[in-house]
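Continuing from the previous page...

OK, I double-checked the sequence for Protein phosphatase against my notes and this is the correct one:
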Amino acid sequence: MAASGTVAASGDLVVDTLVSGCANFSSFAKPTGVYFSDRSCRNCRKASVSMRKGAVKGHKGVQVYFTFDLTERSYISSLPLATWSSNFRTFSSSCYSDGTMPDLSTDGSSCTDELRSLAISDQRTSVEWGLKLLSGACYLPHPAKEETGGEDAHFICVDEQTIGIADGVGGWADVGVNAGEYARELMSNSVRAIQDEPNGDIDPLRVLEKAHAKTKAMGSSTACIIALKNQGLHAINLGDSGFIVIRDGQTVFESPAQQHSFNFTYQLENDTRGDPPSSGQVFTITVAPGDVVVAGTDGLFDNLYNKEIAAVVADATKDGLSPDVTAQKIAAFARIRALDRNRQTPFSTAAQEAGYSYYGGKLDDLTVVVSHVSA
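Thanks. Re-ran it with the corrected sequence; updated C-alpha cells here:
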C-alpha cells in the first residue's frame, strides 16, 4: 500500500534499527497517510485505499456482523485472459507465513526453515471437514520494493482451513519505516494465535485481536483473516484488503472496503491511535463445493473489477488450473492493468468520484490468495 506521493526507502527492511532510533514516541512525527486519532487532520488522507462501491463505514470500537446465505447460482460470460509470466513468489506448506519473503519456485515445491518454524504442528488432531479449502498464493512486490520485500504479507494454514492477508501502509516510508515489517509480524502472530484456537473452531476476530496485541513493530497495516468452518466462511476484514466469492463465473459476495475517507484506509497499529481489531467487519458466508474465494490486497482490487477477476477464475476452472496458478494469472492481469494509463480502473473510478482527476491503474504491492472450496 504505497502512500500517494511517497518514495520507498531503499533500506526499509532495517526496521529494528529504526525502532531503536525512534524509541521516543512523544517526539516521533507520523508520516503522511498514517492514521491519527485527530480525524480533522486533512493530510492523513493519503494512505492508499480504493473506494469500491458498497463500502460500509463502521465506527471505532463498534463491531459489525454480517451473515450471508449464498444459494443461487448464475453465470456471466468470460473475458479474455491477459498474458502472464512465471516470475512470481508462490507458497505451499501445511501452515506458513510469508514474513521472511523466501525465494520459492512457482510450483511451491520448497519452503525455508524460517517459514517451517512458524508452522502449526502436523501432530495436532485434524477436524473432519464437510468442506475443504485448497489454497494457493502469488505475491508481486512493487517493482521499486522487490529487493526489500515490499509491504504485503499473507499466510495459508491448510489443516486449519484458514488464510490471511495484510497490507502495510506505505506512508510510513516518509519517516524511514517499512510498514511491511508490521504486516509480516502481524501475520506471523496470527499463525501462532491459530495454533491456540480450539480445534475446528477458529474465530478470525479472536485471532486478529491476539495477533494485534503481540505485534510490536513500527508501522500499520490492513488485515483480513478467513476461516472455513461449519460449512461456511467466517471472516474479519479491516481496511481495504478483502475478498470475493465466485460461483459459476459470477461474484456472489464482496467484502466492502473500510476507509475513514478517500485514500485513507482503516489500519491496525501498535498504538492506541490506530483502529482496534473490533473496528473490522465480521462475516459469515455460506459456501458450496465449486465456489472460489479470491482474497487480495488493494493492489488487486484497485486495478481489477470483480467481473474481470471472475472471468479469470472461470477460465482457470474450465482449464483445471490449480489455485496457485490461478493466483499467478490474476496477479499478472492486475499488474498489467496497474501499468495501463489508458483504462478505467476501480481506483481511478473512486478517485474521480472523490473529485480528483485520475485515470488508469495504480502500481502497488500485489497479493492474491485463491482458495477452491471442495467437498
